[in-house]
């Protein structure tokens, strides 16, 4: 039989446990009320994401299994993978996929090289000159339509570019012709989006620890060695972000390309986005347009996962 | 004993729980309401709603609509959109069986696409249409059923600079060979002999088809609209002519991306001695505000291929119809009749856009017409509109235009021969037509 002292201990333990339980309950109540508020505040963006992203995506995938034209008079009919077979078997539609790949690889690659170089230049030489930073970032702030219209005026046969060439005695070039249309839109896309790359890389460079850089200099590492073995590995997360964003946005480029060439001449600059627009909004073929959109989504997902694996997921 | 309250005794929370929850709910409701509410610049809707294509059509229609509202007391909400957006919105609205639109303004080539959503105009009698050219009425009929009343109807032909041809001692060409030779002869330095809308679009197909008819093509499709009929000598001759002029260097290199507006601009700026345009451009080419060469442009009859007699044209344009789903069909019909009267019997104060789209006997007899189509061009335009044929009425017309435009552009780009382009187009068009 427990003595009084033991009873007090037991009582204290019981009380402590009770207190712990009550405290836990009180904490739970505090947590629940806080979490309720948090959930309530999250409700709006979740509803928006589901309503504006998830639902349309699922619906688009669903429509892609249907033959659905808004101007044929026929009711939508389920055809399974029929639209996908049409896309893969149609040379022009396949061509738009191929051209999009070329556009993305060339444009993103060029943007990264030039943007990285500009960021290094800003970091090492002109970082204090805010005016230069501002000027370099200007193209990113111009809308796609304005960029397209401006560059069309520059690149058209009797435009500013050829006028400049002719001043130098060089014959005019058909910049928006069949041979150079794709290259021209790559050039314009780079001009507009290099500042984004520059901005992100420059910010990452500024976060580099000075002591590490100083130590490497003291150890006699060359500029190139520092870049390859120290700078790039340390800013890998920023590089991943830049490549990811630019790839995704380049995949769905539309406004600038449409204003510049409308995918022409012929189909020389027709990308998936242009073809999707034509199918869905010019020909009102919702089934085929949705299928092209799904292709775009799949390509984007594949490239995203490839980036994750290639640049080390832990970097994020 | 602490009973779970985090506050110390006597401490009051500045933000009672219910206030925080209310704030969260209010924010959510505000965001959702903001998403739900439509933010448009459109005016408050009246009893009748219609869409108009931006540009000269909307500019000339607005006074007509205002006059209707004044005289009848029926408000009309005329929403102006670029023509492609207008088409998209109409197709979407009609497919949704929405009562949003009462009056539908449509191109004659769209009739087959949306006729299932339109009211047949059986209440319009022959006497209501008496005076119109037969072709402009036929443009809006399928299987004998009238779907829309014609309004802005036109055709297209070649405009030329009188001063340039006179200086070169040349006459307006009458044959395909003469056209090619004249274009080549007039290509000097920065000036090209001919400009044509080679861009991949309906404008190109309609323009090529006009040449094809003048080369003996019987029709774009057969009589029953079940098979392509353009892959014949006429279609081939027309395509080879245009390709020849382009390859001669007699057209601007970037004609390959030209639409009608770019052709007009080239003419305004004196970049071309001849160009193919639709007939209403006569007014803009006569306006000194548009071009320093105003007054020096004239239309010519379409040249023909060897062995073909008689010039041919295609008429196309807009008409007004009634949505099956509109809630004010009586008032909408009243508006239709009002608009119809303006085009059937244009008065002396009719807008230039109405005058330059003549489609009725009264329109051709109007003194205002002769003031715009000078030097005998009023007789020429009447001849062209009288001789004009219409485009086929099939729901696959958009697909047909895309196929023809795409395959023919490859000819101009040197990727295939004209014969191959027509053959491939014929296969694809027949496949599209077989799905009906």
3D architecture notes:
The complex is a heterodimer of chains A (316) and B (436). Chain A is an all-alpha fold and 316 residues long. Chain A has helices at residues 4-63, 82-89, 91-126, 130-137, 144-155, 160-167, 181-206, 210-218, 223-234, 236-251, 255-260, 272-282, 286-310; strands at 66-67, 77-78. Chain A has 13 helices and 2 strands, in the order αββαααααααααααα. Chain A is flat. In chain B, α9 (202-213) crosses α10 (233-247). In chain B, the strands form 5 sheets. Chain B has a 4-stranded mixed β-sheet. Chain B has a 3-stranded antiparallel β-sheet with strand order 3-12-6. Chain B is α/β, with parallel strands linked by helices. The A-B interface holds A 19, 22-23, 25-27, 29-30, 33, 36-37, 40-41, 43-44, 47-48, 51, 70-73, 92, 156-158, 174, 176-178, 261-262, 264-268, 278, 281-284 and B 1-6, 17, 20-21, 24-25, 27-28, 31-32, 35, 84, 88, 91-92, 95, 113-114, 116, 199-200, 252-254, 256-257, 271, 395-396, 398-399, 402, 406, 409-410, 412-413, 415, 435-436.
